[in-house]
Design goal:
It is built from 15 helices and 16 strands. By secondary structure, the protein is α+β, with helices and mostly antiparallel strands. The protein folds into two domains: 250 residues, 2-Layer Sandwich (BirA Bifunctional Protein, domain 2); 90 residues, Anticodon-binding domain (Rossmann fold), CATH 3.40.50.800. Strands 1-5-6-11-10-9-7-8 form an eight-stranded mixed sheet, sandwiched between helices. Strands 13-12-14-15-16 form a five-stranded mixed sheet, sandwiched between helices. The two termini are 51 Å apart.
Length: 425
C-alpha cells in the first residue's frame, strides 16, 4: 500500500523551521501593539458569497483559485483565500462601526488558493493581515504603509522599496478603463489567452500579466494616474508626498500595479525586498472604500495590507536577518544507573514546575548515549543522577558550554540551576 503524503501545494512546517514562524508572529504582535491594532481570530471558512461579492466574480481568485464545497446544510462554503473580506464582515457583524473610529484590527492564519506551487507560494499559506476600518483620510493609507515598513525593519530586512499606484474610484476608473481598452483593442490578438479573456471583464488586469510579450505590448499604455478625478488625485498626492517622512525615500509610482482583487480603490501598493527573483513582493495592500457595501453593509472606508509568513522567512534567510536562537532545552537529566529513573523523573518535574525547560531519556540508553543526545538537543546544562548520587543526596551538574561541573545538594539543586542559568545568560 502506497504511503499517504501531504497534498500538492501544502507542506509540513517542522520544528527546525516553525520557530522562525513563531518569531515573525511575535514581532507582528509587537508592531500591532505599538500601532494600536487589536487582534481578532476569524473563521477559516466563510460563505462563498462573501468572496464572490467582495473580491469580484471576474478575479482569478474567485474564478480559478478558491477551494469551495457544499456542506451538509446545502450551503456553499469556501476556505478563505484572503483575510480582508473576513475582517470587514466581522467589523459589520459585530457593529464595530457604532463605536469610536477608526477600528484597527490584525489577524493571522492559513489561507487557501488553488494555484501553481512555487518558491514562497503554496496552496495553503500563512498570512498576517493589518486593517484600518472607518477612516477615509489619506493619513490612514500612510500609516498602513508605515506599519508594514516598520514590521520589516524590525525583522531586519533591508533593501526595501515601496511601489505605489492609484486605481481610482468608481467615478474615474470607468474613464481609464475605456482608454485602456481602446489602447489594447487594435492588438488584442497578440495578447495571451488570459489577457484576451480579461479584455471585456477586467481590462486593468492585463497590466498585471507576467508574460513578457504582454508586458511589452502594454509598455506605452496610458497610466491610471493621468485619469484620476480631483478627489483621487488629491488623495494620491497626499499619500505620496508623505512617504519620505516614514523612511520610504526610494518609493516609486508603478503604473502596472493594479492588484488582483476588485475591491481596491485609490491607493494600491507593494513592498519589494529583492530576494525572491520574480516573486519579490513581501507585502501587498491598499484602500478598499466600497468593500463593505459590496457585502451588504453601509459605506465604510478601509485600508490595509497582507504579508505571507513563508515569503517573509525566505527573505529573512536570504538576507541573513537575525531570527533569534532555535529553541533548546535548558536542562537534560541523565540517568546514570537503572535504579535512578524515578528520581530523575521527579527532578525533571520539579525543574519544569520552576519555569525551566527540561527533558530526560525514555529509551533506557547508556549514559554515554544520553550525554550525546543531551548535546544534540542544545541543552545548556546536564543533571546526572545515579545510585551514588541518590545515596549521597546530591545531583551532578555540568555546564555544556564551559565544561564546568559541580555536585549540588538534591534539596537545593533546582534553585542552583536557576541561579546558574541566570548567570550564564
Amino acid at each position: 500500500m502506497e504511503a499517504i503524503k501531504a497534498p500538492r501545494g501544502t507542506r509540513d512546517v517542522l520544528g527546525d523551521e516553525s520557530w522562525k514562524w513563531a518569531y515573525v508572529l511575535k514581532v507582528c504582535g509587537e508592531v500591532a501593539r505599538d500601532f494600536g491594532y487589536s487582534e481578532v481570530l476569524l473563521p477559516i471558512f466563510e460563505h462563498t458569497e462573501l468572496f464572490s461579492r467582495g473580491i469580484g466574480d471576474a478575479t482569478d481568485v474567485v474564478e480559478k483559485e478558491m477551494y469551495t464545497f457544499i456542506d451538509r446544510g446545502d450551503r456553499s462554503i469556501t476556505l478563505r483565500p484572503e483575510l480582508t473580506a473576513s475582517m470587514v464582515r466581522s467589523y459589520l457583524e459585530h457593529d464595530m462601526n457604532r463605536g469610536p473610529q477608526p477600528v484597527k484590527l490584525w489577524s493571522s492564519g492559513p489561507m487557501f488558493r488553488y494555484e501553481r506551487p512555487q518558491k514562497g507560494r503554496y496552496r495553503q499559506f500563512q498570512q498576517v493581515d493589518f486593517e484600518i476600518l472607518g477612516a477615509a483620510n489619506p493619513l490612514a493609507d500612510l500609516e498602513t504603509i508605515d506599519t508594514s515598513m516598520e514590521l520589516y525593519r524590525r525583522l531586519g530586512l533591508t533593501n526595501l522599496q515601496v511601489l505605489i499606484n492609484s486605481v481610482g474610484c468608481p467615478k474615474c476608473r470607468p474613464i481609464y478603463r475605456e482608454a485602456l481598452k481602446n489602447f489594447i483593442a487594435d492588438r488584442l490578438g497578440e495578447f495571451c489567452e488570459t489577457c484576451q479573456s480579461r479584455f471585456d471583464r477586467n481590462p486593468l488586469r492585463v497590466l498585471d500579466c507576467k508574460k513578457q510579450g504582454c508586458r511589452d505590448l502594454t509598455e506605452s499604455a496610458p497610466a491610471m494616474v493621468d485619469s484620476l478625478c480631483d478627489e483621487c488625485r488629491g488623495h494620491f498626492d497626499a499619500v505620496t508626498s508623505g512617504l519620505s517622512r516614514i523612511g520610504a525615500n526610494d518609493a516609486r509610482v508603478d503604473n502596472r500595479l493594479v492588484r488582483g482583487l476588485d475591491y481596491y480603490t485609490k491607493t494600491a501598493y507593494e513592498i519589494l525586498a529583492g530576494e525572491l527573483g520574480s516573486q519579490n513582493a513581501v507585502c501587498g495592500g491598499g484602500r478598499y472604500d466600497n468593500l463593505a457595501e459590496a457585502i451588504g453593509g453601509p459605506h465604510v472606508p478601509g485600508v490595509g495590507f497582507a504579508s505571507g509568513i513563508e515569503r517573509i522567512v525566505i527573505t529573512m534567510e536570504g538576507q541573513g536577518a537575525h531570527m533569534g536562537a532555535a529553541p533548546a532545552i535548558d536542562i537534560y537529566a541523565v540517568t546514570a544507573s537503572p535504579g535512578a529513573c524515578t528520581e530523575v523523573a521527579a527532578l525533571v518535574h520539579e525543574i519544569r514546575a520552576a519555569g525551566m525547560s527540561a527533558d530526560m531519556d525514555y529509551m533506557n540508553r547508556a549514559m554515554r548515549v544520553q550525554m550525546k543526545h543531551a548535546s544534540s538537543t542544545g541543552a545548556r546544562f546536564v543533571c546526572i543522577i545515579g545510585e551514588d548520587e541518590i545515596a549521597a543526596g546530591t545531583v551532578g551538574i555540568k555546564d555544556m558550554a564551559s565544561g564546568e561541573q559541580e555536585s549540588s545538594p538534591r534539596s537545593g539543586v533546582v534553585a542552583r540551576l536557576a541561579e546558574w542559568k541566570e548567570v550564564s545568560k
